Amino acid sequence: MEEDNEYLKLSTEDKCQHKLWKARLKGYEEATLLFQQLDEKAPEFNRYAPLIKKFVADSNAVAQEKGLEASLVFMENAHVAGRVSGDVVAAIVQKAIAAPKTSTREKARDLLLMVVEIEKYEIVQEELIKGFSQKNPKVVAACIGAMTLALSSFGHKILTLKPLVKLIPVIMEHKDKSVREEAKGLIVELHRWIGAAIKAQLTSLKPVQVSELEAEFEKTAGEKPQQTRFLRSQQDLRAKMEARAEGGDDDDEADDDGDEPDAVDPLDLMEPVNILPMLPKDFYELLEAKKWQERKQSLEAAKELIAKNPRLAAGDYGDLVKALKKVITKDTNVMLVALAGQTLAGLATGLRKQFSPYAVSCMSAILDKFKEKKATVVAALREAADAIYPATSLEAIQEDVVGALGNKNPSIKAETAALLARCFCYCTPAILTKKLLKVYVTELARLLSDSDPAVREAASEALGTAWKVVGEKSVAAFMGEQDPLKVAKVKEYSEKAELKVRQGSAKAAKPAAAPAADKPKVVKSGGAAAAAAKKPAAGKPAAKKAPAKKAATKSAGGASSSAAAAAARPEVTEPELSPEEADQLVAELISEDIIKQLADSNWKTRLEATQTLQQTVSGRSDLPTQAILVALSRKPGLKDNNFQVLKLKFDVVQQLAENTKFSRRSADLCLSDLVDKLGDLKTGSGAAAALSSMAEALSLETISSEVLQLAFAHKSPKVQEGALSWLSKSIREFGFTLKPKPIVNYVRKALAHTNPAIRNAAVALLGTMHLYMGGTLRQLFEDEKPALLQQIDAEFQRVSGEQPPAPTRGRRAVDAAADGDDSGEREPAAAAPVEDLVPREDIGDRVTGALLTELADKNWKVRNEALQKVAALLRQAKFVTANIGELGSALAARCVDSNKNLAAESLRICGELGGALGPHCRAHLKTVVPGLLTALADSKPNIRQAALAALTTWKEQTSLKEFFDGEMLADALKAGTPNTRSELLAWLAIQMKEVSGGLPKDDLTACVPHLYTALEDRSAEVRRAAADAVLPFMIHLSYEAMARHAGKLKPASKTTVMAALDKERPNVPAKAPPKPKSAAAAGRAPPARLASAQSEEELLDDEPSAAPPSGKAVRGGGKTQRAASKTRAGSRATSARSAKDEDADLAPPLQVNNLKRQRVADEVKLKCLKWNFSQPRAEFLEQLKDQMTNAGVNKTLMTQMFHSDFKQHIKAIDTLSGCTDSSFEAVSANLDLLLKWMTLRFFDTNPTVIIKGLEMFHQIFIRLADDEYRLLEQEATAFIPYAIVKLGDPKDSIRASMRNIFRELYKIYPASKVFLFVMDGLKSKNGRQRAECLDEVGYMIETFALGVCQPSAGAALKEVARQIGDRDNAVRKAALNALVQAHYNTGDKLYKLIGNISDKDLSLLEERIKRAPPRAAPPPPAAERPRSCVEPSHQEQEPAPPRPRSGLPTAPPPAEPDEPPAPPRPRNEITEYCERLMSQYPRTAAADMEEFELHWRQVWREMDAIINEPPLVTPTFKHSWTKPNSQSAYHTAELEQWVGQVADPDPATVRRGLERLMTVLKSNEHDVLADHTGRILEASTVQYRRLLAAVEADEKPTAALAREVSTLLTTLLHYPSLADKCSHEALQQLVAASLEIITCPKLSKQGEGAAILAAVNKLTVRLVEKANHTNLVCALVAMLRASVSSGAAGSPYQELLMKCIWKVVRLLPEWLSQLDFHEIMLEIHRFLEAHPSSWWKTMASDTPLRTVKTVLHSLASIFGYQVLTFVGLIENADKTELWAYLMKVLTTTGGEATLKLTEDARQPGAGASASPSPAGGKFSKSTYDQLSEIFKKIGTKENTKEGLVQLYDFRLQNPDADIQAFLSKSSQFFQNYVERGLKGIEAQRLRSGQQTAGAAASASDRDRTWRQEQLRMRKDAERLLAELPPLPKDPSDERRPDVHIDRFRELLRHWPEHQHLIRDLDQLQASWRSGAEAPRRPTSQHHQTSTPPRATGPSAGVGGSPQQPVADAAEIEEYRRRLAKFRNPAP
């Protein structure tokens, strides 16, 4: 019993985490009480914050309920509640919302509502919507119910409705009834709040469901929804509603109109669509067609498109509107007019306010067309007019409407008046001003007497509607005297009128009693601090969100709008306090005596009281600000006549503004008094400081507007001067965040003041504003007096050299400080964009149709007057918006006016228009510029000069690049006169020289042919201008490009053009190198040692190569150029025009830098947003742009990448594809940025961009795999999840591209990690995506076996098996195929792994497995499978360093894709020692074969000296850990957690993991770690990599931790069952890391380096001796191959690696029974294939090749000819270098095995597992498959002969193989057929002399006598060799050995292993017959005494192989001796 209650002694926190549910229950209860007692900001909340999500998800139902109670109290009271809300809500949805207990579900909903109340409603809505897709219908229904409750409680303004509306069809189609019922409830609740707007979203539902919903809507039709719960920021609204509830029913009725929920537009719930690209390609052509049917077809297509997409996205609809308007006005077919009207109505409705640029012109056309008599046409036009009106205003259409009301046609008048009536329904008294009423009412009153009754009725209706809006008095004032009957008619319509918008309430607002009612709630006994803390404040929750929006509120140009500033700092609001409430709050701070003393008549008493108050408020933030200011303002208040008291009071105000929540209401209490004292000499500085603090608390715009208003209302000039001076200083401190128009108005007043001090202050303020606005500010004061303008110009000149200072206060300063953390030095703030600061006027409504008609009038005087009107309009407006109607095209037409004076005036006005438009010129460039270019053809010079001046103005406002777009200039050069060509080319020659780059190459190229034509023009002026333009064109296009174009000319023209090009070629300036980023922006520079080494390598590499073309970047010297450019760039002065030429960026598209590491670190430390979103948001785009800018991405490329036009994206992809070929190192350095950008493109709708992007990344991934790059975790997580989503794309081409991407992805990122992403893809609702993911699962299992499945094979296969029951046939098929691949690997064990599935699914699976074809070949081993890279370490991944250049004349071999390259090692003492060591073994130059030998004992002795160290003392852990219950087994989850701790960056966590794993190893249950061995090795590798990284960074490594890791691994290797589980990949990574540590030169110089080296040394030896031998040998050979590929020849790393292989060679005889020689042979084959012997001839040392051949030599010596049976995994093995070398070695050794295998060694998986016929007659898998294929061929008619030949050869090669096992299964007829076929082949080969004498026997006899025949042939050969007589000196001697030689040759012909000896005998016999002495082959006695056996040349005998290597060598020497004796007979 005591044990059960032991938990009562624990703390509350420990109880909440206890494993007993009773303990947790008690802990939750105590926590609930604790949370209720704590203050909001108590530190205890921080301790409990991580535990709250566990409270909610408790596994015990009783405890969970209490946990929910505690969580509710926590969320209500804790200041950190918002931080944990995401985890808490997710846990509620998963565990609590659908709990069995009703009370638990209710508390879960209460907790969700509380999370909404604390302003985290986005999280609640997001998680609940996720719950809609849960598989458990109870969870889905509960989530929908919770969403309904939240909507009912908080209303539709809090929750976002659009995502809910999208899900309505999904949840209404759910198969569970309860879900559908809850969905109905949600829809009904939506209808309560938004009304009929929801009905538009119900069209996709079933009719039955719609009718049910309609019935429910009727039930709730009369209900008025009310918000019942409120956010923390809505407490003032809550107080208002509570006060209203107390007021009674009458008050409710009075306020009914004011509280109705705002109507929701159904279009707001739809996604906007851009229909312009969807229009038919021939739309405009058909609309101009002569046949009305074709025009109708075009209009119907547009109408249907708009009907399908009611809400339209913003775009340039000008052409479409113009086309529709043309149909309405000019088409004679009334049916088409009606159709165009309907289409225009849909367009206006879909665009809404965005239709405003076209509204006025369209309305004018419609009013004119009302004259049509067809009712259908009039109805369509009426619909269009009604749709257009919301986009415009009554004032804008006033001129057109008045004109229509005065039209003679009664139909036009009637419809116009009716239109006005409908428009007035949407007006309020504020809209219908007296000015408008006077115009409209006068005209309508005149129509009351019209002769047409329809006109009279319409006029009465319009007047009646206006009457209802503004009242009788306002309308009657302009109606004049009217007949009483007519007035009565107007009144009648007034009563009938239904207004569509809410009118202002006539009732006065009742004073709110909320403050008084809330008084007991505000003031509590906790003092002022408690009162302030408990009082609801609107700014508090929003303030927590401000940092998250920091990136979004940054301004690129250094200036931001006031809206952005307001968004960054939400305004604090608070109710007004009564004097009594203020006194009560202040009394809690200071005594009543002090309050009274503040108003004492004695100034000294007031001074003491103020000092006391100042000390009280100093440094405190929890103060009632408003209450203190109320007390401080009491008479005499802030108007105190004592300056000392006043200074202290101003200081109190300043502290309150800086430290407390300062509201606008608080500012109003003291602002006026502070402004009054700005001119005071003694207290003015204090008042200014207080105002600045208030501006920082609120905003500068808010305070400055109030200060200027109060100051200029003041009579004292000093106050006005002080206000202007304060504002000038504040702008420099805060940055220019103000709207300039109000300031300019006050400055105008100041400049007109009689006081010179005020004028001087105003001029000084203008000087400050000039810093930010530039010369644009000067234009706003051109109307001032000349003397004043001279003073302003002098001030502007004084500040012209200054840069805008960086802001030091306010929000801008916070942003600048944040940026300053990343960059070393702060740059001056850039000037604000003029379009953001200059007030622009919209003149679109003044550019009327009448004005345009006058501009086109035939009378030149009318045209002149119209031009003067336009000029006056521009002078009056000064700066205009882009909305100028059709003024541009009208002026362009006048530029070529027949009247030259008007043409000149038009050109001048065009120039003024360009200046007035500013950057908005771009929108009208294609309209105006062609007219200016046409004017260049004029014969009068003044016209041409005016045209050039206008062109220059427009170019300065935009850029020259815009002029080239659309080939405007090319067309002008082509069609223009000589004047046009000469003037334009001269102008281009000047302008193009000022642009440094960025002009569009295609458009420039289009001008080149016309330039060449101008070079040969008849006119000398044209030729001169063309000659001047050649150089600018050549600068931008290059000489080579222009020469290529010249090559297309005729020979005579080509000569002239090439002469001009060659003349200017020397003048082409060298291209400037790319401007480098500053040191701060470029990240940490590489170490000096590394940089210098790279420079040397690049210089060496560049010496022998030819110089590249001048126009191309040099890869090798890129870094040198960049380094040199830093010096040059530092000396450049920033020009004032650099901002305009930003697009002219000559830098390379991508730059090589080291910033990726910093970006990864920032993401890990949460300094930037993680790339994780469901839809890309603005902050992610801004972050990516900032990162690209810092990385030095070309600005032009960035513009293309983030352009809204998909064509620009394609250009960007083409540019990046070029980088892949030319500067791949830069692509690799910026890979993470490119991957993120590609994920953004996945969300685009244009398939061309996506397909081209995927093709580009396919090539990038191939290159990355070739370079053995390893994808970083951050790169993978930023790309793969979105790629998974794109696997479900509906387009086949995109899915195919994604599959190709994944095939390459496995080579640069671990397949096991990709597997986890793919499994997440199975959760998608997209059936295609699930099917593709399952296909990828099947591919990975087929390629990488079941080891790829994560987290385990069982868990993964269970999830795959669930997909068998999917509704989608493709998903089911893919799931079955994946399981079949798993069945290939596991067999029937698969059924156990997938667990319990339904009988139907099981039957499908069994049937699919039965029908699956047998696997053609066994699963390839790991080394042969398509490589998936080894899992990299987590935080320590870095981009692969560039490969070092070796300086050799030949290129290195192609990189192998299997293993990561070994890093190059610097040369040091170890390198020189190894070189001296290897120099003792020179290559034998006399050997013909590329063989070698190593002095074994010397090698082993040197290896032992380095590797073998004295034994280490096992470190003891400080804190031993004991498993809680030693009797119970270890859980897999526990083991995985402990292994994961070993890889943790925190050393304390690592030690905990090591301690627990060591405990397991020392227990009797150590075998439970067998499945985790690989992960343990990988986690240890991570720690070793961290150790290396720390050493490289000159940080002190942790020796104790390294020793503990080494001790764990050494202990693990002690157990054979665990050591055997070491995988190939894990061993490779671990051994590589160990050898890098051992050879690290820095480590040995550190204090604890020796201890670390000793620990790692010991571990390396244990790994070589104890680890899985097959995997170890393969890993070592693969590492050696990678090391050679990386060019690290002769490095200590490589030397030590080879010594490990030598030690393995020594241990081979002891490991025979444990080795899989097939895998080893395959790995050696890969080495020889990558680095063949021919390649080594160019290398300085071939020791790696000799090392690998040592392994082959040892295997051949051990197994003899049986070693040839281990090459079954190699394709075409007999054609490889490995086979050739083995044959040579076997020839030398005689082919006899020196060691017989035991039976254990012949078991599968052992060394002899692949022998063709082991004991018992069983075949290996490869042999069995080979025979199966042979018999399949025999069974087919076409291949039967080929199969018999292969079977015959198989029996020759495998004499011991018994094929009766195959034949016994067939019929007797087939067996006889095979026997006859084999005998026929045998007889045929006997006849052709290709069969040995012993082979004439039957096949069965040969099987029995093969060995005997071999021995007999060998004895015959030895006998004949011994009996060869000495050759006589005289050739005529009859003692000729021809008979013996012929017999010897005959024997050798049938001995395949010794075919080469026949050539020796032929050469020997020919030499003897010719009398020439055969050349002697030198022999070496060194081989007999000091070398192991090796093949060193052609053999002369074939004696048996001795048992020992020395005897084998002696036998070889005996063979040579006999051959020498044979060749040199005794005299």
Q: Using DSSP, what is the number of strands?
A: 0
What is the first-to-last residue Cα distance? 112 Å
Give the integer mean of the pLDDT values: 74
**With helices defined by DSSP (H or I, 4 residues minimum), what is the helix count?**
103
What is the helix fraction of residues, given as a range?
55-70%
General form: globular
> Which structural class fits the helix and strand makeup?
mainly alpha
Low confidence ranges: 249-261, 505-569, 815-834, 1072-1144, 1417-1427, 1430-1528, 1796-1817, 1889-1906, 1927-1936, 1971-2012, 2021-2027
How would you characterize this protein structure?
α40 (684-697) crosses α41 (700-712). This protein is mostly helical and 2027 residues long. It is built from 103 helices and no strands. The protein is globular and about 140 Å long. Helix content is 63%, strand content 0%.
Write a concise keyword list for the protein shown above.
2027 residues; mainly alpha; 103 helices; 0% strand; disordered C terminus
Concise overview:
This protein is mainly alpha-helical. The chain has 103 helices and no strands. The chain is globular, with a radius of gyration of 46 Å.
List the helices and strands and how they pair.
Elements: H1 12-16, H2 21-37, H3 44-48, H4 52-56, H5 61-77, H6 81-96, H7 102-117, H8 121-131, H9 137-154, H10 161-172, H11 177-194, H12 207-219, H13 235-247, H14 249-254, H15 256-259, H16 283-287, H17 292-308, H18 318-330, H19 334-351, H20 356-369, H21 375-388, H22 398-405, H23 410-424, H24 434-447, H25 453-470, H26 472-479, H27 484-496, H28 514-517, H29 519-522, H30 527-534, H31 539-545, H32 550-553, H33 562-568, H34 579-587, H35 592-598, H36 603-617, H37 625-632, H38 643-659, H39 664-676, H40 684-697, H41 700-712, H42 717-734, H43 740-751, H44 756-773, H45 776-779, H46 786-799, H47 810-822, H48 834-837, H49 849-855, H50 860-877, H51 887-894, H52 900-917, H53 925-935, H54 941-957, H55 960-964, H56 968-975, H57 978-994, H58 1001-1015, H59 1020-1037, H60 1039-1046, H61 1051-1064, H62 1088-1102, H63 1118-1131, H64 1155-1164, H65 1178-1190, H66 1195-1201, H67 1206-1222, H68 1224-1229, H69 1231-1242, H70 1247-1266, H71 1273-1286, H72 1292-1308, H73 1311-1321, H74 1327-1344, H75 1353-1362, H76 1369-1386, H77 1389-1394, H78 1399-1411, H79 1469-1478, H80 1496-1506, ...
Helix pairs in contact: 2-5, 5-6, 5-7, 6-7, 6-8, 7-8, 7-9, 8-9, 9-11, 10-11, 17-19, 18-19, 18-20, 19-21, 20-21, 23-25, 24-25, 24-26, 25-26, 25-27, 34-37, 35-36, 36-38, 37-39, 38-40, 39-40, 39-41, 40-41, 40-42, 41-42, 42-44, 43-44, 44-46, 49-50, 50-52, 51-52, 51-53, 52-54, 53-54, 56-57, ...
